[in-house]
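anyone seen this seq b4? input:
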Amino acid sequence: MTDTINFGDTIRVNDIDFTFLDVDVNGGWLCITSKVWKRLKFCSDRRIYNNWTTSSLRDICNTEFLSLLDNRMLLSQVSDLTADNGDDSYGKTEDVITLLTCDQLRRYYRLLPNWGTFVWSLTPWYCGEPDGAIYVQGRNSDGTLNNSWAS
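predicted toks r here
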């Protein structure tokens, strides 16, 4: 048995399997759940549905899901909310539990598990109203990126 962990390896924390993706500049580990935890809408109750900052999914990740883990082991991460078209008006957020951006989905493509379903990213299709604020980018089960209606 070895004490080393490699990118793509599975790590179990409190009965939840995570896939190890990367190490940040401070030595923290970037991991993602190896299986879909819950099937949830990106946002169910806000006017601008595709903004992670006001997303109901963000609230659930940083309360209900976070309660399943040892918070002392977790570091926050700053996420860039730049839309697929380059619009950066949503800015950045800082969360302990977050989703990957489309850039990260591309970067870690070979390491990501196949969840067998569409999974959200936190990248909006584009920012603004009326029509653009309803679509969020995500990853299909075949690994391709696509957008879906956030609510």
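Residues 56-65 form the longest helix (10 residues). The radius of gyration is 15 Å. kinda curious what u guys think
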